[in-house]
Description:
The protein is an alpha/beta fold. The chain has helices at 2-34, 55-63, 82-93, 112-120, 142-147, 170-193, 209-214, 227-237, 258-275, 277-282, 288-298, 303-327, 340-354, and strands at residues 42-48, 70-76, 98-103, 128-131, 136-137, 155-159, 162-165, 205-208, 241-244, 249-252, 359-362, 365-370, 373-376. Helix content is 49%, strand content 16%.
Amino acid sequence: MAAGILTGAGLAYYALCLWSALRFSWRAEQSRIDGPSFVPPVSILKPLRGADPDMYEAFRSHCLQEYPEYELIFGVAEADDPAAALVKRLKFEFPERRIELLVCPRLLGTNGKISSLVQMLPEARYPYLVVNDSDIRVPADYLHRMMSPLGDPAVGLVTAPYRGVGAGTLPSRLEALSISTDFFPSVLLARELEGGLHFALGSTLAFSRTALDAMGGFDPLLDYLADDYELGARIAAAGFKVVLSDTVVDTHIPAYTLRAYCKHQLRWGRTIRESRPWGYAGLVVTFALPWAVLTTVLAHGAGWSWLLLGVTALLRGALAVAAGTGVLHDRRVPRDLWLLPFRDGLALLLWTIGLAGRTVTWRGDRFRLQAGKLTRLP
């Protein structure tokens, strides 16, 4: 009985997510037709640690922007960080761009990324800032699309949808599928149900210094794991709107092993649990496909249970295509639809494990996570 009820709740969740995806697609199309033009000078801040094979192309995409005035400021904690060599190569390839490399040696809190941002901020010349992850690859109109909503003084932050580019291993493909067909639909639904976004995504944080100052700057985030979520939440709490852009960026996913994938998902899950505890508890209804399978097993294959399973699978696939392909333009989603039952079953298992425990592994270090804050473990 419980499995059947959870399946029904999950079907309602899928339907609401599908509705949210269709509404976002329609609004994005209207925005592209009617959107205002706002092109202030921008400082792009990119804190770095380590290098990966796709990082340089991600850097290059920021230098190819069709935008009148912007600067790139990279920060590393140590001068011999491998990423520093890539920034020097970038400066050589694009001498016409203002590209700065800063060494940020002070560890001001447990979050090294925010420690670097605190030290990078004084070097930024412009009143509008963009912070994004080191592996984010962006289209040529990225800055135009990100800055446009900030022309409204009520808007304090703009964040961007993102799709994962898998490295070829099965767990890497599962991660990409999770982003396009599970995580992003949940973001769209939260946006509809909560009357707008009240958090942000680390793929892009574009905001004004006015909004940053209103929330107290970067310093309050020094010990938080979900710094992107906190930045958006605090800017929203300061009275500004948080807007989801209509541009989509790419994030490159490592060649995860199954063990590494599970560790990453578990860290992500515990981060959500600490940031939005009721939201994490509510995720139980998002696993309609595994619940439908369990219902069929418990009903001993009764005809109605197979019908329920078929409807659930159909709606799950429709949502995956609408959000993953229709909104994020992720061409890999149709190819990987067959992985959805395995992905959803594994996600339910990891969600259950994530209900307990506070230990997470981040960038090779172990931390205790409590109330969203990190405490380093020996």
